[in-house]
Amino acid sequence: MAVYFYYGEEDFNIDLELEKLRSKLNPDFLSMSYKVMDNPDYESMITALRSSPMMFGSSLIVIDIKNYFFKGDDEGEGDYTLSDSELDDIKVSLENNQEGVDIVFVVKIPRDEDKKIDSRRKLYKILSGFNVKEFPAFKSYKAADIANWIKNRAKDKKLKINDDAITVLIEQIGTNLRQFDGELEKLKLVAYPENTVTKKMVEENCISNEDLFNITNYLMNGEKGKAVAEYKQLLNKKYPLEILSALQTMIRKWIIVKSKSNAPMQEIMKLTGIRYDFMVQNLKKDLKNVQLKYLVNLKENLFDIEYRIKSGQVLDMESEVEIALLR
Q1: Are 264 and 220 in contact (CB under 8 A)?
Q2: Which one of 87, 145, 183, 287 has the minimum C-beta count within 10 Å?
Q3: Strands 101-108 and 131-134: what pairing?
Q4: pLDDT digits over 131-170, tens only?
Q5: How far is C-alpha 40 from the geometric centre of its chain's CA atoms?
């Protein structure tokens, strides 16, 4: 059938595209028709690319190839290579992809690391000959783009959302599309049966910076036990994934402020979505004694647990988020 190449920093938009393709499969045979591969070696990859179509309908193969473009950590992850002959085999297999088999190559680029996919690589040139689409992250200073995304996503959920409600959402969340989506799911229940989301609904039901203040304050000071205690209290009124997404948005801002402390104030404000320079200055002071490595590790832990929750690998979300905060 078709070959796709999706890459970019906005992993949630990539996931939405993958879900569209997955939804076309026969739900009774998903365990056989849907396959996900995590940076496979050449032999595993070429075997999958040469797969025959299933007798019960179409099949979908999703192949994460991030390690073929970005160097991994000290444990040896990443920096994968393919020989010219292996690349030629891959190209031929894709050009002769069989009817009934969709193949999607995916590269989710880490945010805030100033990484770009290398378009000079032969693998990129091969994949760009098919259905290629980049998914860049939304810029916090381009509120109109984020607002349009929220409106369209709300429409997909058969919701209408007022402009002032969108403004409040953006002020509370920033650019985290996954969190926007979660809040819209909740607001859909709140707005029923009129299905129109108002500013008041957002203010009363969506997580805000005030809700997170104590957790983030303790995390900033390395008091993880107290942060977990606050997290448990917040669970009385908020869903674990809501808290998790909001924390990631907050910590992302910290990383930007910490890593770009010498950058012009306007640049930091644009990257973080923080509206006032005095707020950036105060945040710089708060983060003065916090190591950037600590913040990055914390963000990676939270991202990892969110991915595991979303992929159905976690049974006890509340406890797993606690562990991620303590790690």
Answers
A1: no
A2: 145
A3: unpaired
A4: 999 999 888 778 899 999 999 999 999 999 999 999 989 8
A5: 21
Going from N- to C-terminal start, the domains of the chain cover 3-134, 143-205, 209-326
pLDDT tens track for 34-72: 999 999 999 999 999 998 877 777 899 999 999 999 865
